[in-house]
Batch of 2 targets.
Target 1
Amino acid sequence: MKKNKELEAIKKEFTAYKEMYVPDGLTTEEQLKMYSTMVLIRKFEESVKPLWMANKVHGYYHPYITLEAIGVGIISHLRLADYIGSTHRGHGHVIAKGGDVNRMMAELFGKDEGYNRGRGGSMHIADMSVGMLGATGIVGAAVAPAVGSALRSWIKRTDDVTVVFFGDGGANAGSISESMNMAAAWKLPVVFVCENNQWAIATDIARVTGEHDLYKRGIGFGIPSYQVDGFNIYDMWETSKKAIERARAGEGPTFIEAKTLRLLGHHATDDNWYRDMTVVEKYWQIEPIKRMADFMLENDIITEEQLRKIEEEAIKKVEAAIEYADTQCSEPSLDSFYDFVYTDGEIIE
Amino acid sequence: MAIITLRESITQAMREELARDENVFIMGCDVGLRGNPFGITKGLMKEFGERRVIDTPISEAAFTGLGVGAAIVGMRPLVEILYADFLTLAMDNIVNTAAKTSYMFGGQANVPIVIRAPFGVGGGVAAQHSQNNENWFVHVPGLKVITPSTPYDMKGMLKSAIRDNSPVICFEHKRNYSIKGEVPEGEYTIPLGKAAIRREGKDVTIVTYSYMTYVSEEAAKELEKEGISIEIIDLRSLLPLDYDTVMASIAKTNRVVVVTEAPLRGSIAGEIVGEIVTRGFDLLDAPPQRVGSKNTPIPYNENLERLCTPKKEDIIAAVRKTLE
């Protein structure tokens, strides 16, 4: 009873809320695959905080927990040759694009076998082999370079597509507006995905933004723009499909505002002291993984047994990644200190 | 050998590289239809098409970022910033992304971008179109900074910069654009990070770069009349910087003056003197001298502008100090 009441309250205040349905063209197999990817992201992210507390991982770490439907919903339309640009909250994007959890975990441990050879860590995680152009520690800064990746496709007249993620905080960085303008002017094959979790660390979007529906910014640049329910993977998948097809056909960019709400702290140890968390609590019942699982059970798309198996497999993969990073990887050699500052082995001290 | 202007040497380098490598492209404000304010890219859009020579909106921050991203996925962008003063707008993409990506990604990606930026004082274009901000970029690990001052150097070094896999900023002094010099027909490149000895001498070494090389030559000619023999080193590249050539010269002259057009406070002249003292204190017979602009924005008024930047008299006075 309480649950229903809460859901009614969510529907009233969370205007992007949309009921779930299976969109045309989405197979059961694809749904299971997306669900498995979301669960793997969740299990990976849940494992990092204890590692941080145990001093195995250090620095800043921003979990993708409860945003899984956004990254997975759009990236599932991409090919290996397509690119994504990421945010400081990039682990989920790496996994969704087909990255390797072992190498990502090794990077968080600062190991030489990590994606970035221990030079980058969580905030700069990148996997060029799957077209993941890198997380960034400068909010909003990945957008212009990602549009540059789309510029390459335009110059070369290839049909690959770039998807770039940023948040409501990043949306207020000027170079994003400049990039949207150029993407629109030249019809670049890029999809802008604004993960609007309504909080820029401790600053509520309502305190710093005049128009809270951020998709309207896209319209101002002449870009087809949509707002989707960021907790609803079916909604994200369906809108993304149109956007990716449009980009691939050379018809230009799309702006998707994936509206959500940050249910956790900004980073691993942020306790949200500056927010009224009683308002937030009820949203856990529409968090994307549980919501998709419930929907699939109700519609006989999946069984309890399958759900259990997917979860067990994800846990196993993450445990193996931790084992790999902790026991099978090595520290970067101190002799390699100057490596990668310049290219082709050139050292300038 | 043909005699051409430095401006033409840039055009030649870019045209040859556009033709040689389909990954090379140019972007910037007014680089296409107008052919840039100095005519440097004139005709290239017609020759290579609107997707290889791209007119951008006035969005330095983002179009530099687009260039950086295109470079990460394998292109070789030539991004033009109308005046080096406007580099401030693109700073984040240059410093935080272009310079750091190869390192942060553990070598997974390179950023083979070249950013061309006309800089320097002259012509009464005042505080926001005259700046010498090359110093700032020398402080950023991961970048290369070049300042070729002759048509021959410019062509050969710009071609090397385009082929280099690290990000390079090419500072072009506006007063050098009309300077003429011999440029060989056909293909040649000049490695980045090698200084050139412009004038051989035995009494005092002048270490300088870009337009100040020419002002230093005027000073050297004056001093020669008095029998003072000056050796002039044109650094050509500030990062990497060729200290081997600098120190070899000082080993011979035991006296050094470092000349920059940048405001002296916090400039590379201090850094160079510091390095010289560390490497070869015992070689020096006199305290090293620095010459630079006064620490003000660049004035509009002609007399004030002249007062601001180093003239041959300032260089001569500094040389004399080393001989006291």
Target 2
Amino acid sequence: MKEGRPRSFYVLAIFFAAYVLFLYGPMIAIYVLSFQGPQGGLTFPMNGVSTYWLAKLFQGTGIIDLGASFRRSLLLGIIVMAVTVVLSVAAGMAFRRKFKAQSILFYSAIASLIVPSIITSLGISLEFRIIDDLIKAHWNENFETSMGLLTSGLGAHLTWTLPFGLLIMFAIFNRFDPRLEEAARDLGATPWQTFRYVVLPIILPSVIGIGLFGFTLSWDELARSSQAIGAVNTLPLDLQGLTTTVTNPDIYALGTIISAVSFAVITLALGTIHMLNKRQAAKGSDAGKGLV
Amino acid sequence: MDTSEDILQQGSPDLVRGSETRRAAKSARLSPSFISWLQAGPMMLVFLAFFLIPLVFVVIVSFWDYNEYQLLPAFSGRGYTDTFEGCIAQLPDLCTIAKTYLKTLKLCFLVWAITLFIGFWVAYFLAFHVKSKTWQMGLSLLCTIPFWTSNVIRMIAWIPLLGRNGLVNSGLMKTGLINQPVEWLLFSEFSVVLALVHLFTFFMVVPIFNSMIRIDKSLIEAAYDAGASGLQTLVNVIIPLAKPGIVIGSIFVITIVMGDFITIGVMGGQQIAAAGKIIETRVNALQFPAAAANAVILLVITFLIITMMSRIVDIKKEL
């Protein structure tokens, strides 16, 4: 019956390959260009090969205080990741039963995902400005601001990462077998033990996926940070600031470093997920493979 | 009973210890609805504090007054009247806000059409032509990884290609097709659309792929057996069944482009006006009520578009 692949396969395979090239080609171009020689410019051809521009960033002689922004972004990313994982898993568990306000939470999450970031960002900045004004008027005249990286900034990032976390939890529990929990309960496990020793190990690979989304989305977040981060900058904000002024490969070097962190985190997460999946396959249930 | 207890004890000592403690009795007393609140409450609080209340503030502040340097908490329609300034006086010419929204809608439509085309065929290839699960996973991942990297970097990545002395221009000059570098490649509407497509086709691919993967393959075989051509199967079977994904992807792309100000700013050389950019400009001028009024207008228009689209499909059922 089968006569090899249809012609449409080859047409679409070429289309797909072109799309992947379109996705990665430009990125790879700037990674290469960040190794320009000291005399090199913003475009090809390469003018020698060196780590001059990368080194310049680390020496702090560049245009911005890279180190401080780097640490801020990293700290915020890690906190956002942790909070996203914990709140998403908890809320995901809640959605397995009916509870009041279920649809309010669901629609809040969807709305938070699709309401334009600039509006959310503006709203948070207005909220904190008004809080500041209230504090100044009623309690402390010298109060500066409650806006900051770990108040308004953290909140702004969570409005972006939590919907993804929740949707991933939905996907997990769509194909989760509730009989496993029933079995645990029948054996006398408490709800917490059921979660800790039965549910969590099974969903762990996807939970790491949530963490991956949490960190990378925060690490690269720009639109929501723009109005809500307060006085300090994160790395993407610094990078965006550079786009209008810079005329040499500094900006590519910075881009390469930011991407290097992203890729390190992606590799780490995917590696861990792969390892866990393999372990599950090896040591997991032998149900259905039995002798009977 | 004994055996199961034994197994538990070997597997994990604290499993058994835990079951004897008061914790078990205590959690048994918690009502299921209370537990649900404990589990879902924190996330609800985050959305309340950082999304719902801020939205309310946007609406409230849009009706406040302002001067050069501060907010004045008194009712005023100035945020709106300033925004719509000249819209009636200048008729039949369009006022600034109308022009800006028309331009934004045009960008939106272009990006939507292109991402839909690319997204549909990429998803189609992944769902129907890639047979092995491993390859499907690997190729999907290949499409997802850029989404986990920085948008700004993916924007500036076009500079070495499209710039005055970029690869495209120098390539075209070498082949003799043009004598002068083409200027409209970068910092133009072209580059804005290109970058938006580059960044956000992902949001089309994922939901369409999700819909397609759920299509029962036997339906397609049945269509072939009944004598349908490839095109007929596509139009009458696959597209209707993939419609939920198409609608969800479209909602994502349209709302992102409607509110975008960063891509349009960076790739348009800060020269192109757009709905999101007005808000940014007003905020930078510290005209918060005007910024908020623009945010409300944008929100209403976005909401109208989503309502129109969700008429076609029940989003909640599809997730």
